[in-house]
Design goal:
The structure is a homodimer.
Chain A (H helix, E strand, L loop, with lengths): L2 E6 L4 E6 L5 E7 L11 H15 L5 E4 L14 E2 L4 H6 L2 E5 L2 E5 L3 E4 L5 E4 L2 H12 L4 E5 L4 E7 L2 E8 L1 H11 L13 H13 L2 H4 L1 H9 L7 H14 L7 E4 L3 H13 L3 E4 L2 H16 L7
Parallel strand pairs in A: 1-4, 4-7, 5-8, 10-13, 13-14
Antiparallel strand pairs in A: 1-2, 2-3, 6-7, 8-9, 10-11, 11-12
Helix pairs in contact in A: 3-10, 4-8, 5-8, 5-9, 8-9
Protein name (chains A, B): 2-dehydro-3-deoxygalactonokinase
InterPro entries (chains A, B): DGOK, DGOK_C, DGOK_N
Organism (chains A, B): Tropicimonas omnivorans
């Protein structure tokens, strides 16, 4: 083993025992997200998951990324300010010891947008550098859809800046808790309704475009079973309307999100290059570990 | 008494005993909104509230507006299609009898927006015609802020069209149930934070601008006690960014909404003319009743 890679978020815990050349020797995944850890017993939770691996090699380092470094996580690792390359991010890692093992928590990243407001990410920064490594690119626009979708610009190997859209979270709130979602039946896919929502979301302000799902349903032009797909289109359309200029977008998504963002990007004429999020996480952690512990992890 | 005016919504019941010249002889207001009426006993609920008035005059008409005419209300009154003047709206009223009294439910209004989607309102149409009567205008842009804010265009005395923004509902969802609101403490007013949110909401897409409240708070540039005001600014800014062109806006709001929309409209250089929503409802119902029952209600 070279090191242990941990992706520790609010609801999920994932760890990999990494060998030379970035190959995965073993892995664990559980629901022991940060919220499930009681009384601040993060070290005990880590030992429960990875203690066997650690026992085998007293010098084995542990690299962690994700919300584990947030204020609500194990130890707060202050954000690294963009533009930042991987070396700058790892230089800001929070380093400490766990049961005698060298450990580090990556700091996440922050940037200031053109309008004078901050943006933040935790965990996606390692995925972005990992995707760049996997694809062998130094310049890219990378989209990571989700609860809080990220649009990142990689320029000359540096994370130049990024923009968060609360697309997934607002979709879930509207679908499950609003007067628009109250008319919806199920969440079946409906590519035509999705595309219709997409063009509406790209053209009209979100708070108006979303209401069309209710109005169209009441007027009888949108079936209750298509409201969910239409709303998804509205939300993704609003996000895509203000995306960074790019002929190609690196899309880190699987399942329905991969399908929908793929279709949406195709609709606006962008080429899509898919990267698996877990692969990107591991690849980024190997790159970061090689910087942090060059004597243990080959670059 | 000339007629009984009822404004019956999902959560509130309001009724006025109206005399000649539109003066209010008596009024009742209660929590017996439509949702509180069990087993479809709407007539019994109306009699409980207004039975004494009805008993005094066997021919007394009852005019109702609001969600009472929706699918989830007493009787569904299909929407009147815009452009529509008051006569067109009253012509589409659903007329029936309640305990021998002539009764009517106003139909609400619907329109098709420039993007081919429907919009709907119930209850606001009577407020819009009422406001026009109170102000003596035939052309106006009228804003009715709330859960679902309405921006209506009155042209030559006709309701030409309107646009709904889910501003209040999305604000409440973000404030009370999102990861942005989770960082907020209280809902104190903060004019500077509100104005900051306003300019951000006017410039950036809603799902991104709202996230700035979280990012700024995590970076330490927005106090937790100012998040609510900032978010309110973002939501209202997003609404105002796409308002109809107008030098003057008729604003139907009271309290904090009147303050915030007033400040926001002032910020964008629009003149504001306030109209009280209850006054507008009654004035609109007097105009509608005069059309429906000219033998009883003087125009």
């Amino acid at each position: 083993m070279d090191f242990i890679a941990v992706d520790w978020g609010s609801t999920r815990f994932r760890a990999w025992s990494m060998g030379a050349d970035g190959d995965v020797l073993d892995s664990v995944e559980s629901d022991t997200g940060l919220k499930a850890v009681e009384g601040g017993r993060f070290e005990a939770a880590l030992m429960t998951a990875c203690g066997d691996w650690l026992a085998r090699d007293p010098g084995l380092p542990v690299l962690m990324s994700g919300m584990v470094g947030s204020r609500a996580g194990w130890k707060e690792a202050p954000y690294c300010l963009c533009p930042a390359d991987l070396a700058a991010v790892t230089a800001d890692a929070l380093r400490f010891e766990v049961a005698g093992h060298p450990a580090a928590i990556l700091p996440g990243a922050t940037c200031d947008d053109a309008l004078g407001h901050a943006d933040v990410m935790r965990g996606e920064e390692v995925q972005i550098f990992g995707a760049a490594g996997l694809l062998g690119v130094e310049d890219a626009v990378i989209c990571i859809p989700g609860t809080h979708s990220k649009w990142a610009r990689l320029e000359g190997g540096r994370l130049a800046g990024f923009e968060t859209h609360m697309t997934g979270e607002i979709f879930a709130l509207l679908r499950n808790q609003s007067l628009v979602g109250a008319l919806a039946e199920g969440d079946a896919d409906d590519p035509a309704a999705f595309r219709d929502g997409l063009t509406h979301g790209m053209a009209a302000p979100l708070a108006h475009a979303a209401f069309a799902a209710r109005a169209d349903a009441l007027r009888g032009t949108l079936p209750a079973t298509s409201i969910s797909a239409f709303l998804s289109g509205v939300l993704i359309g609003a996000e895509l309307a203000r995306r960074p200029e790019a002929d190609e977008v690196v899309l880190m998504a699987t399942g329905i999100l991969a399908e929908r963002y793929g279709a949406a990007l195709d609709h606006v004429g962008a080429q899509v290059r898919f990267v698996d999020a877990k692969d990107a996480t591991r690849a980024g952690q190997v790159r970061a570990a090689a910087t942090l512990w060059p004597e243990r992890v080959p670059a």
